[in-house]
Request: fold
Amino acid sequence: MSTIEHLTISELKILLLTLELPPDARLTVTIDDKQVAEKALKQQRALAAMRKLKGCGNGHLHATLLREKA
Reply:
């Protein structure tokens, strides 16, 4: 297994765009700042929940959540 350490986000983006990985490839990402990682995961979960609300009769709630998020 290859290991690459201490990449910036822009370097990681370039690497991912350059690599041709098989669909079942797995990556491990370690983020040193726990608070930043937790905040990003909470945001992703909130966005996923808002996407689930879309189209289930809660149009005004969904629009309000998206406005507040922006």
In short: The chain has one domain: 9-69. The two ends are 40 Å apart (CA to CA). The CA atoms of residues 19 and 25 lie 11 Å apart. DSSP finds three helices and no strands in the chain.
